[in-house]
C-alpha cells in the first residue's frame, strides 16, 4: 500500500511538471549549454497524456512517433527533450541524420543502456543493445557473416520453400478462399522458420508446433516491453530499485529466453560433442569459435535471442501490414496481377530472378515499408563524445532518436505522403540495401532499416524473404475485406516494434492454377 502511494505521488509530481516542460522544449538546446556548465535543467518532460474522450491521444508511451512529429512541426527537425535523467535529441530530417549518424558515425554509434531492454532482458549482451566497442564489433562481424554473402546464397532454397509453404498454408486455412483467414500467425511462422534455420538449423513443420506459439509470444513480449521513450522506469533510477510490474515482466522474459534458446543451444552442443552431424547454422559457428572469441553461454543465448526477436518481428510485421493494406486497394492489386501475369505467367510462382522485371510489385513492398515502418523510432543511437552541431552542444551520452515517421511523411520528399501509392517508387530500381548506401540521402527510398554503422545488418535477408513472400501472395490471391470486419490501419500492437491489431481477410485464389502450382 505504502509503495503504491509513493509511486502514485511520484507520478503526480512528474505529471504536474509535464505541461510546463512541454512549453519549454523550444529553448531546451540552450539548456544543453547550461548542462555543460553544471546548471540543472528545470524541465522534466515525461510520459503521455491520458486518452481523450475521442479515443487514443498520442503520447510518449503510445504512438510516440506522432507526438514527436507534432513537436518537430513546432520546434524544427532537430530539437531536444529530457525524460527523467536522460537527454534526447530528436532528428526528423535526412540531412541531419546523415551528418550525425553517418558522417560522424565514429561518435554517434553507441547505445544507451536502457534498464528494461539492455540491463534486464539482454543483460548487456545482445548485439542490438551493446555499446560501440570491440565486443560489439565481434558480434557484428559474426552477424554480418551469417546474413550476407555465401551463406545467404546457400539459404535461397530455404527462403524459396518457406515462401511457398506460407502461400500454401494461407490457401489451406482460408479453405480455398471460402473462409476468412488471419494472415498474422502464418507470416510469423514464415519469418520464424527462416530465423530458426539460420540460427539453429531447424524449422517447424506446422503452425501447431509448440515452438511457433512460444517463440512468437517471446518476440511480441519483447516488442511490448521495450520502447525507446515509453518506459518511465528506464529514466527514473528510483523506480528501478522498487518492485514494479514491467521489471518483473522483463525478468521473466529474460528467463524464458535463456530457458528456450539456451536449452536449444545446449542440445546442439551435446550433439556436436558426441560427434553427430549438425547443419551449418549460427550456433554451430558460435560453438566452434566460442573459445577464441571468449563467448560464454549467456553471450550465445543473447546473440541468438537478438536474431530470433529482431529477425521475426520485423519481416513478419511487413508481411502483416501488406496483407492489412491490400484489401482496401483493389486497383493496386489489379495492376500487380497484370504485371505478374505478363512476366511470370500462371504456371509457376515468381522467383528472385523475376524481381528486376516486376517493378510494380517491388514498389508495393517499398511503399509498405515507407507507410508502415515497424520501427518508427528505429533503435536510438548514443554519442560517445561531446559534439557541437549547427552551433548546438550535444553532450556525450545523449540519445539520438531518428523519427522516421516524420521523414516518411515529409510532403516535399513524398508527394501526398499519407496516400498509399506505389507509383512513387516505380522509377526506383535499387534494392533497399543499395539505396541505403546512396551518398545523396535525400534520394534514399526510406529509412526503415536505420542508418550509419548500426544499420540493420540483415537488409539483404529481409529483402529476399519479403520479396518471395509478398510477390507470391499477390500472384496467388485476390485479397478482400471480410464484410462487417473493417481493418484498423491506425492502431497497432507493440512499443518498439509495431504490428497491426488482429484482423481477418478473404484470400481468394485467383484461378485454378494456384492449387496446381502449390501442389494442393
Ligand atoms: C523488414 C525487416 C527488418 C527491419 C525493418 C529491420 C530494422 C532494423 C533497424 C531499424 C535496426 C536499427 C538500426 C540502427 O540502429 O540504425 C536494426 C538493427 C538490427 N537488425 Fe534489423 N530489421 C529487419 C530485419 C532483420 C532481420 C531479418 C534480422 C536477422 C537477424 C535483423 C537483425 C538485426 C540486428 C542484429 C540489428 C542490430 C544491429 C546493431 O546494433 O549493430 N533485422 N534492424
Automatic annotation (TrEMBL):
Locations listed in the record: Membrane
**Where is heme bound in this sequence?**
456
User: Which SUPFAM superfamilies does its entry note?
Assistant: Cytochrome P450
Q: Which domain of life is it from?
A: Eukaryota
Give the main localization category.
membrane
A GO CC term assigned to this protein in UniProt: membrane
Taken from the record, one Pfam family name reads p450
Its name, as the record gives it, is: Cytochrome P450
